[in-house]
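Title: Request for sanity check on DNA 3'-5' helicase prediction

Description:
We are preparing a figure and want to confirm that the structure record we downloaded matches what your pipeline produces today. Could someone re-run it with the sequence below and paste the raw structure tokens into this thread? We only need the token string, no images.
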Amino acid sequence: MTLGPLIVQSDHTVLLEVAHPDAEDARHELAVFAELERAPEHIHTYRVTRLGLWNARAAGHTAEEILGTLNRYAKFPVPAGVASEIEDTMRRYGRLTIERLSSDEAPASPSADDTAAPQLVLRSDDPAILREVTSAKKIAPLLGNRIDERTYPLEPWARGELKQQLVSRGWPAEDLAGYTPGEPYGIDLEQQGWHLRDYQAKAVEAFQRGGSGVVVLPCGAGKTIVGAAAMAEVGAKTLILVTNAVSARQWRDELLRRTSLTEDEIGEYSGQVKEIRPVTIATYQILTSRRKGEYQHLSLLDAEDWGVIVYDEVHLLPAPVFKLTADLQARRRLGLTATLVREDGREGDVFSLIGPKRYDAAWKDIEAQGFIAPAACFEVRVELPESERMDYAVAEDQDRYRIASSTPEKQRIAQRIIEKHPGESVLVIGQYIDQLEAMSDALGAPLITGQTPVDEREQLFQAFRSGEERILVVSKVANFSVDLPDASVAIQISGSFGSRQEEAQRLGRLLRPKAAGITASFYTLIARDTVDQDFAQNRQRFLAEQGYSYTILDAHEV
């Protein structure tokens, strides 16, 4: 009997032997419920978390399936304690439900100060569980007087906060209370010359079945089309929240191309334009802009009778929008993202307030179907010159990353990489504006930063798409929702420390299928033996999570 590639440990970590012939199959099944923690070259470490198990349960997976995966690929028997903990954790999801009380279920003898039967209730089939959570100091104020031993009323405003508190206590509630239909507004998909891909249709179906939640798809796999199809299914006024004005205009263009909507029916609500239409596209930036300490535009979220709110790049949802989203639990909510990872650790709030993961398609599966391009990933290690090494050695901790990641040596290596890819379209991506300006001058290539006017950005992006510009130097403004289908080479010269979500977005710039069918190349330039290299190890976790191997090269090998 062949021993499997996994070692399941009693601390809920799972070790994956990368070179094992079954490693890819095991990784694919692990991704359903486990989070990758470390990804060195030979052994990858995953952790089975409560949130991962609850997301899997909400997406329709069972404890039997998950234990089946572990038992099938394990080199040694799965510890009994881990197996029972997985079963217990998944059993907790849905033991509490939030429901809408029907009129015939109202209390027979309401107290004198009751003016109406409560609309929402917290229920459990186990009175002991209900007693445990309702006695918690942060939960008790959200509930009214007990209706019976299995039912407590709650105020409509408490729906979101209650779900947050229940998750934090380890008892995630299944929200069955339904959603307001919103103001009806007919939206049709116009599928002349194209059709929904199978995984897109499954994602829309999963969202419709749950009413709210998150769809996880790789960049280039058509998340915008999933959003459009969900809007058509709901058939109501829609608010779409996006990362920036460029993304807003790309959403508008895609909706005009794929649906029956006209320009007059789609409004943009950003720093430049303030339009509210049946379909309104707003930026996170404008929602979280403050004047005299007040978030003056957050009221937009409740300004209309929206039937659905779409959160694009939901892993970037700003904290102030979470707070208001807690008050919007009666609206359908669709989160779209390439990764559920949040650098601020608020994945639990996404689960509670936007909804659990409803659908997740493996990147490599979609690549195998030809819908996104294959990619080869490289880490190129650069030596700091002696003078920079000394500067790095004596610098304060907060300055070391900038010194290491901004070394001019990266400029020379980037030029050599570009020479290795004649005729291909190249993105050079970085974090620090002075570094990018120097790179732009050295390459004679246009630079796009946050200071570049939106119209100029769109002109440069269009010149890149048409082939008029072969190289673009871009800051992190190009991380999100920028459609550059012909980019086949990306050179990452600096980034936001160890951000996995940024790694997802930057790799995603390359994954639109190429007309010539070529493999994309993703290079990350790293200063050897510095914090730059340390942070790179965290970013690589994302590549490994999605099944991408990466090759480590010395600069002289380029």
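Thanks, this matches our download. The chain has a mean pLDDT of 85.
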